[in-house]
Design brief:
Length: about 400
């Protein structure tokens, strides 16, 4: 069994809207760039894993391989909500750990187009399945006994946090929107690269209180890819590739534990706390060792909660951590230097791979204007609500 798994190639398309390309194009583009970064060709890959949510049933992995080169190796299609891309990385890792492959190609791609999460049902529901409103109108059950719509779920989680922590206020959520949009201005691959003042964030269209439109991840298209290598494969690669290889110190995937109120509302906290604790244990590191973090800020409220869930501050200390400047680029533990999902974008199947790409790029010293100086250790976190959380801790290769 190989001792370590290494990232030896990484690439990402710019996230945005691609009306003239399809999802295969996006996945193929990222894959070819990652292979070129590793100075390898597709014929060397012994395992391929492709993460995609909406097109997975079409054999998206095989379709990408038809475009970049059919080699007959195992191709695994992965879907796991927002944790899809990170789960695909684990597929490649597991093939290497099992000794079935020395080199693996992992791709995440998605073209959401008009598939917004706020879209109305395509057909009206029969009246007998909906409660009757006080005015005699027929109301959908959504929002009456709880909500499964993500803006509402994370709006509720944010308000619940404020109720339990009086030192925090909605102003802290607005600050996160301000921070992440400011960070994205330095990221050439971000969907949005415009800074917004806190007043602009606060006064934007309200989606689900307290999250305004500038505090919600946008609908995005894009692709990201990494090439993974075993110890033996790494030793045989080009010296420049070996020099900038990044070790995966921990890779963790967990699902929700049982909770008494789990049928009524999502617990967005416990699952991340469990994943982080296990990742730190496996890596032999702690939150104090992290030089930067890419966490799942699908909404601004989520980021504040995850400061504590990932151990970046003491329990109850998220507001103080933010007020101190801790998660800014020049802070104690920079968070979402890419701009995060709020402004970098959130093409579901690509998101988990893109987070790992971002951390690896900093550890390789290749992040340009947004580079965190002398970054050695970083964490990428994604939450597929209702299913899984994945956490990867990456470590720069010793000189």
């Amino acid at each position: 069994m190989t001792e370590s798994v290494w990232i030896v190639g990484a690439a990402m398309t710019a996230f945005g809207r691609y009306p003239d390309a399809d999802v295969v194009d996006l996945g193929a583009r990222a894959a070819q760039e990652a292979l070129a970064d590793a100075r390898l060709d597709v014929q060397r890959m012994q395992h391929v894993a492709v993460g995609n949510v909406f097109d997975s049933l079409t054999g998206i992995g095989q379709r990408v391989m038809r475009q970049i080169g059919q080699t007959g190796v195992p191709v695994v299609n992965v879907v796991n909500a927002c944790a899809t891309g990170a789960t695909a990385i684990r597929s490649g890792m597991q093939a290497i750990k099992a000794g079935e492959a020395d080199l693996a190609l992992v791709i995440g791609c998605e073209q959401l187009g008009k598939r917004g999460l706020l879209a109305a049902p395509s057909e009206p529901r029969p009246a007998e399945y909906s409660p009757q409103g006080r005015d005699g109108s027929i109301m959908d059950t959504e929002g009456v006994v709880g909500s499964s719509m993500m803006p509402a779920v994370f709006g509720e989680a944010g308000i619940a946090y404020l109720a339990a922590h009086p030192q925090a206020s909605v102003e802290h959520f607005f600050k996160i929107g301000e921070k992440n949009h400011a960070h994205s201005a330095l990221n050439p691959l971000a969907q949005y690269r415009k800074k917004f003042s806190r007043d602009e964030v606060r006064s934007a269209e309200m989606i689900a209180y307290p999250n305004t439109s500038l505090m919600c991840s946008p609908t995005s298209d894009g692709g990201a890819a990494v090439v993974l290598a075993s110890d033996a494969a790494l030793a045989a690669l080009d010296p420049d590739v070996r020099k900038r290889a990044v070790r995966i110190a921990a890779s963790v995937l967990v699902t929700d534990p049982y909770g008494e109120d789990g049928e009524a509302r999502y617990d967005v906290n416990t699952i991340t706390r469990n994943a982080a604790a296990l990742a730190y244990e496996r890596a032999g590191l702690g939150p104090e060792d992290l030089d930067l973090v890419e966490l799942h800020d699908c909404f601004a409220t989520a980021e504040l909660l995850h400061y504590e869930n990932l151990g970046l501050c003491e329990p109850g200390g998220a507001a103080d951590f933010l007020d101190s400047g801790g998660p800014w680029r020049d802070g104690r533990t920079p968070v979402n230097v890419s701009g995060g999902l709020l402004s970098k974008g959130h093409p579901l199947g690509a998101t988990g791979v893109a987070g790992v790409y971002e951390i690896a790029t900093h550890l390789r010293g290749a992040a340009g204007e947004r580079q965190i100086p002398d970054a050695k250790v970083g964490m990428a976190h994604v939450l597929g609500l209702g299913s899984s959380v994945a956490v990867h801790i990456l470590e720069r290769r010793a000189a």
